[in-house]
Amino acid sequence: MQRLHIIPERGATIVAMFNPERYTVSKSLQLAEIGIPGLDSPVVQYVRGQNEKISMELFFDTTDAGMVGDVTDVRQQTGKVYALMKVNGELHAPPRVTLSWGLGGQLTSYGASIPPWLVLEQISEEFNLFSPDGVPLRARLNVTFREAWTIEEQLQVTPRHSSDRTKLHTVQRGETLSLIAYQEYQSPSDWRAIAEANDLANPRLLTPGVALAVPPITGPTTNSGTV
């Protein structure tokens, strides 16, 4: 049977004594709610993604030698996993790891084209069998690994292109189209693109709290003055 492997970027690979019965993968997004007067629900805007997490229970048992005589403290095995939360002298941080399990490969759900790096975020240990001398022989580790990409690795997986999507801008009291164009395009003379996208009959009259669509500008624009 293929065993689960925990492969740190520094140090020896840890092979699970017993494969987990199950594991859980979770991921969420951070979203902002923009309240617009007159609408039943706020507009939801994407802020950023949250780290993916993998949680599982690992089982360890060293009772092969029996309950008396020479016994092996199970912490000799679980301590290898605990060490992943210690600062590595070369990295100045706990080492990142990848998880691999047989032909199935990576355990994360998103199927990245490069190995998914994780860091051991949380661990708890329960001992439930002891030798007559009180040496722990059986333990369960509940562990949570957290996605840990660098900026360069994230851009390698999902290349970013120049912004080409329409945004929403909530009008604040005292704002003009020229000011909004300066904030969004760094050019106050591009106000006409916003006016046309929102069918504004009078670009000089803006109502505070109204959400304006701010379209991308893909080509050269005409200097149209300010409003």
What does this protein look like?
By secondary structure, the protein is an alpha+beta fold. Helices cover 14% and strands 31% of the residues. It contains 4 helices and 11 strands. The strands form 4 sheets. Strands 3-6-9-8 form a 4-stranded antiparallel sheet. Strands 2-1-7 form a 3-stranded antiparallel sheet, with no helix packed on it. α3 (177-185) crosses α4. The protein starts with a strand and ends in a 13-residue tail after the last strand. The model has no long low-confidence stretch (mean pLDDT 84).
Kindly list the characteristics that best describe this protein:
4 helices, about 230 residues, 11 strands, about 15% helix, Elongation Factor Tu (Ef-tu), domain 3, Membrane-bound Lytic Murein Transglycosylase D, Chain A, four-stranded antiparallel beta sheet, alpha+beta, three-stranded antiparallel beta sheet
**Contiguous helical run count:** 4
The average pLDDT score comes to 84
Low-confidence stretches at least 5 residues in length (pLDDT < 50)?
Answer: none
CATH topology description of the largest domain: Elongation Factor Tu (Ef-tu), domain 3
Distance between the termini: 72 Å
